Task: inverse folding
């Protein structure tokens, strides 16, 4: 979380995800048409880390439905109840929501009432079993 959305911020976030998840196959990365996602630095990073860019036409909001849904929940379930004294406090609270609640615990109807972590583990097992 920074005061501005820059290419460097997007690259740092993506690098953290690549380092943490260590994807073995190509991963589709969807973004909007912001300048941080259209430059050579971003494209080079994606190709170097086996990531594939996905960017829809301007004004094609349904492509962002998953992200919009997540941010709606984040705001409704966490941020609207808080007053943060510092950016660091906000960053820590959002991190805790995502990593300690949303990903490992929060059940989602579109994932068969599983948490994102449980759903991903199940999908990996099914892929390994050839199902």
Result:
């Amino acid at each position: 979380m920074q005061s501005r959305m820059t290419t460097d911020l997007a690259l740092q976030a993506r690098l953290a995800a690549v380092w943490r998840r260590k994807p073995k196959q190509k991963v589709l990365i969807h973004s909007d048409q912001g300048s941080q996602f259209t430059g050579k630095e971003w494209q080079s990073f994606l190709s170097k880390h086996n990531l594939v860019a996905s960017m829809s036409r301007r004004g094609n909001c349904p492509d962002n439905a998953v992200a919009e849904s997540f941010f709606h929940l984040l705001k409704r379930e966490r941020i609207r109840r808080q007053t943060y004294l510092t950016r660091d406090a906000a960053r820590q609270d959002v991190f805790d929501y995502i990593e300690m609640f949303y990903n490992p615990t929060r059940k989602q109807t579109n994932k068969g009432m599983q948490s994102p972590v449980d759903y991903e583990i199940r999908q990996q097992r099914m892929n390994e079993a050839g199902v």
